[in-house]
Amino acid sequence: MPSPAVPVFVTPDASEAGRRALRDALGQFATGVTIITTLDAAGKDIGLTVNSFASVSLDPPLILWSIAAGSQHVAAFAVGVRFAVHILGQDQAALARHFGRPGVDRFAAVEPELEIGRGLGGVPLLGGVMAIFECLLETVAPAGDHHILIARVERFAVPGGAPLTFFAGRFGGVGTT
Predict the structure, then answer these.
(1) What is the pTM of this model?
(2) Which residues contact 169 (CB under 8 A, 6 or more apart)?
(3) Neighbours of 75 (CB within 10 A)
(4) Which of 124, 140, 121 is nearest to 86 (CA)?
């Protein structure tokens, strides 16, 4: 039996090549894909694609995700703000790309067939997704070039489906078991 290959370890650094290498290595972890929605201080709909979502606790029911400290939407996420997490299905890669585009009003140009409802606090809810978690933001913690947001799940729905995944810089899907 051949011996396993010995991995070559790299120390991360701040160079462009170092940052790219670390990003590529982190991309080896397959994640689900979400869209986070909320309202800004003026009551305008905000939405962004996020793959840093995770469960934290069942008791109390807590989730987390992270946002770039330099994001145009970071001010919309302060302690006490309500938001919704939408788990995307494998046929929603175009929607994920749309809500990931910088510098545009993501709700102004959204697909006409996408249903948009209203949840707790008037937060926009996207139809046709695998699951929705309506949350109340409890903690914002600075962490390098991002902020980690921890929120309490107030209610959720699970319409179901097969998940959209993100792996090695690409969208994909997996079957359900």
Answers:
(1) 0.89
(2) 24, 27
(3) 10
(4) 124
Give the chain's domain count.
Answer: 1
Residue range 145-166, pLDDT digits in tens: 999 999 999 999 999 899 999 9
Question: What token pair was written down for 19?
Answer: 């940052």
For residues 72 and 68, give the distance between their C-alpha atoms in angstroms, rounded to a whole number.
9
Helices (H) and strands (E) in the chain, counts: 2, 12
Kindly state whether residue 12 falls inside one of the protein's structural domains.
Answer: no
CATH code of the domain covering residue 67? 2.30.110.10
Token pair listed for 112 = 């006409």
| Structural domain range at position 130 | 30-166
For residue 168, pLDDT over 60 is answered with yes
Beta-carbon contacts of 25 under 8 Å, excluding residues fewer than 6 positions away, are 10
